[in-house]
Design brief:
By secondary structure, the protein is of the alpha/beta class. The chain has two domains: 37 residues; 311 residues, Rossmann fold. It is 43% helix and 8% strand. The longest helix has 31 residues.
């Protein structure tokens, strides 16, 4: 039998197990243990154990958890996007893919047609990519200005956009069109070429009624209006007797007859149009249209540059050989427009009709809103104009006192608007102030050779 001394001197199994593990120097005392991260010593080579101190572990806040989750989620989305981009580049946007084969020719064709834009760029870039850069810093105008110089448009930062009325030029006919649909056409055109903001509209002679329609039906998209010798409805009942007399007295009997037919028997206009500009013959402007000209207009229409423009303009307008759009335009001119020019005058309109608005006005201010067109309206009128007499501008000044009338002494219907460099500069200075085109762009353009003048892509209305 082993004695008690031998038993006490023998090692237990716990002692045997502990002898196999190196002593760490840590003793558990029943309290919580705080372990700091190891740090480098002064030499930067050996690790020094951090001080073990008691304390509570810091818990991560909810905000930090959400932030970390969003960061992780964003990194995953970024990686997903890069993966999708690689897939598209490797499988879809390749020379052998179906989409590229179908779209390459149309895109190349569009790029070819827009090459003229390279003349306005600081460097030769693909017009398909450069178009938005040019377009978003310019002004949209819906009319042509015969003889306007490209250099002048660039100097004032203006891009002049023209379009054909339905049935004119290459534009499809619109048999049920009216002035409201005409304004919507402008809006659709602006949206199609990605104009998100406002734009200017410009109208000449009888084409001005489409500008008035834009101010009435899409006023929120119009920045301002410029009208030249604006033609009104000669049967407008809001004109005074004196204004009506001064309007009609200077017109030739044949022109008065055509207005009467357009108002009462529009189908009979076919005969007159076939005998005049739709006959295929051109001649002088006043020989084919029932208009009389001022002295300065007489001189201008004799100029070869105007004669060439006039012939090309007529040929483009009658391209389709269809008289119906011309008759529709004449009928629109002498019919009720669906609104009065006085409606465009800025004014406060309050809801006072009905019992409820009346009762509410007894103890509260009525709900009012500013109606009409709030932008600038500029009108240029030749005082010797015998096509659109100055009496029409006088009527506009009476019903729209906010409109700015620029009366031009000794000027006719065409002399101030067509092929007059100094006139065009005065017009742009009045509308837009000092030239604000890109100086860098202008320097590039001054070194480039291009044609000095461009003609309108649409007709002038006479």
């Amino acid at each position: 039998m082993m004695n008690m001394k031998e038993v006490r001197g023998s090692r237990t199994w716990r002692d045997e197990l502990a002898s196999l593990v190196e002593d760490t120097g840590i003793r558990f005392s029943g309290e919580s243990i705080g372990i700091s991260e190891p740090t480098l010593d002064a030499k930067g080579s050996d690790f020094v154990s951090g001080e073990v101190a008691s304390g509570e572990l810091e818990l991560e806040s909810f905000k930090e958890q959400v932030t970390g989750f969003l960061k992780s989620w964003g990194e995953m989305l970024l990686d997903l996007g890069r993966g999708c981009k690689d897939i598209v580049q490797q499988s879809i946007v390749t020379e052998d893919s179906f989409i590229v084969q179908k779209l390459s020719k149309p895109v190349a064709k569009i790029s070819d047609r827009l090459k003229f834009l390279n003349e306005f760029l600081p460097e030769d870039r693909d017009p398909v990519h450069a178009w938005p850069v040019i377009f978003f810093v310019v002004i949209l105008a819906l009319a042509g200005i015969p003889g306007v110089k490209i250099s002048l448009l660039e100097e004032f930062g203006v891009r002049l956009v023209t379009y054909d009325l339905p049935g004119f030029g290459e534009s499809d006919p619109h048999p049920s069109r009216n002035l409201s649909s005409s304004a919507l056409d402008m809006l659709y055109l602006a949206d199609a070429i990605q104009i998100n903001g406002q734009f200017w509209v410009l109208g000449y002679s009888s084409g001005s009624m489409h500008v008035w329609a834009a101010l009435r039906y899409i006023a929120s998209r119009i920045a301002g209006a410029a009208l030249f010798a604006p033609m009104l409805n000669p049967y407008d009942p809001s004109m005074t007797k004196e204004e009506t007399r001064r309007t009609w007295e200077g017109w030739l009997p044949r022109r008065k007859l055509m207005y009467f037919l357009a108002r009462r028997f529009p189908k009979l206009l076919n005969f007159f149009y076939q005998q005049s500009f739709l006959s295929g013959k051109h001649g002088r402007l006043d020989e084919w249209f029932p208009v009389s000209l001022s002295k300065k207009d007489e001189i201008l229409v004799e100029e070869p540059v105007f004669e060439e423009f006039w012939h090309r303009d007529v040929e483009e307008s009658i391209r389709q050989g269809n008289m119906k759009p011309f008759i529709e335009e004449a009928v629109l001119q002498v019919s009720s427009w669906g609104f009065n020019l006085a409606d465009l005058q800025p004014q406060q309109k309050c809801q006072r009709k009905g019992l409820l608005p009346w009762l509410r006005s007894m103890y509260t201010q009525p709900e009012c809103e500013l109606a009409g067109f709030l932008g600038p309206i500029h009108i240029w009128q030749g005082m010797e104009d015998q096509v659109v007499p100055p009496s029409m501008s006088d009527y506009i000044s009476r019903v729209l006192p906010g409109a700015i009338i620029h009366k031009r002494p000794n000027e006719g219907h065409y002399s101030y608007y067509c092929f007059c460099d100094e006139c065009h500069r005065q017009i742009f200075s009045t509308l837009f102030g000092s030239p604000h085109g890109s100086l860098e762009m202008l320097e590039q353009i001054s070194e480039t050779t291009f044609e000095e003048t461009i003609e309108a892509s649409t007709q002038c209305h006479y």
